[in-house]
Amino acid sequence: MGGPAIFFHADAVEGEGKELVGRRSAGQSFLRGFLQHVPGDRVHALTQDAQAGKAFEKVARELGEERTLSVHNLRGDSDFTQAGTVFFPGPGYLSAPWRRQRYGADKCSLVGITHTVSTRRVIEGLHHLMLDPVEDWDAIICTSHAVHSIVARQLEEEAAYIQDRFGATRVPLPQLPVIPLGIHAADFAPVDGARARMRAQFATPDDALVVMTMGRLTSVEKANPAPLFIALEQVAQALQRPVHLWMVGWANRDDEEALHRDGAAALAPSVKMQIIDGRGADVRRNIWAGADVFTLPVDNIQETFGLVPVEAMAAGLPVVMPDWDGFRDTVVHGKTGFLIPTRMTGGGHPIGADLAQRFADGTDGYLQHLSLMQQQTQIDIPAYVAAFVALGDAGLRAQMGQAGRDHVAATLDWSAVIPQYLALAGELAARRKSARVRPAINPLQVDPFTLYGRYPTEQPDGTWVVTLRQPGDASALAALDKLNGRDLYKRTLMPPARMAAFLQIVAESGPITIAKAANGAKMRLDLAIGAALYLAKYDYLSITRPQTN
């Protein structure tokens, strides 16, 4: 293949009829970035199956890719390890570690990427990953230093469990490099006239300070809006000028939208709040231009990186974000905006063990767990207010906005991020060169005829004798396939014509050992045994033990 490959799954990118969520937006952006910035005269991809391969080709062409596409899939015999490195859109590698064993564990590196790391599915995925043949020339990209701390701790716990449970002396761990998500910064550059058009569209006067949020309206999965409402009410009183809040997003539940509307009315009566549907293309592209400041009062454990403040900076907006998880990796405090102190209950208290147990045993579902954790986090409201008041100054907003655009272009555009992926691929290749490969046997890939060998009365071999009971040709066997399920399930040991050729040898040479019939039909012995059993099942042949003297 001669170049790094991207694993493509249609659910990991945006598409018609799909709910717009952060991981799909990030996946779509990464695919575009990969196609634009990976060198070579071919684009290499790995998919789950042939149908997904066709979907990748369609999406890649729609995105303007003109190079030759080389697509391998996991459900097949194609050697995807020639890619050297395969990048996956999530922290796991699906069946690729075991598939790699067929060609040699040191033939390629598998690289995943984190998004949300707090769900039960992701936590259990990391647990199961440790039982796969993962090597230290594989990697999981952590999108922030905060996420790195979580994944590293989780893997340490898993390694300790494996060592204690099984007495393991070696537990290979993937590398955990910190590489940010990227964006296409040019997509967010302000368009002439967009500011006036957006303000007019949403009935916002020129002298209003417009604070904007972006994302799904969910108080536990994205951001609890109450601290923002409280802060902006104080900002409105301090500035003595109109303050508008544009909550650009969408709610999956009516009660969540009501919570946002009711919260704003009760906690920020001096602020004009509007919920603006953020799924329309025009709004997503141009709404930034109409705002003055971007914020998102995130205080939940689901967030890990946060693309929207990066997009806001690319659009030239100063950002006011909690000093929380990945935001501190992207926002430069005092230069591109402000980071607001946050606080959370410390570890080691009984309540932490209680919450962990309740989440593990299912007493609390995911949303309930997020809610309980969020109830013990705090964003510093006085500092929040001070940041907005400071940004009431148009000169400071312009200065920070330009600094944000420069910062994103230099460090968070895909043109700056993809080279870090390629450098990682080179580092992992160097690790593979010095590797000592230990073959691993897949315990889930046992020869089924050995595994179920105690089921049948007997297991014929090549010495058994086959005798014709009735003639049959390819058309008769094809007609049989419509009655016995082979056509329905689209799986055949061999086509009717090959089966008929075996039957013809038996008819001509009659009674004959399976081994001799296989030789006459130029057929592998194990396949001939299967053909004999299949034909005997439908009374074309009889199978008998060899006679002994």
Automatic annotation (TrEMBL):
The keyword Glycosyltransferase does not apply. GO terms for molecular function: transferase activity. It comes from the Bacteria. Keywords: Transferase. Pfam families: Glyco_trans_1_4. This is Glycosyl transferases group 1. It comes from Loktanella salsilacus.
